[in-house]
Amino acid sequence: MTADKWFDLTGWLAIALMAGIGAVHAGMTGGWQAGHLMYGAMAGILVFGLPLVVLALVVSWLWSRHR
Question: Where exactly are the transmembrane stretches of this chain (predicted)?
Answer without folding.
Answer: 12-32, 38-63
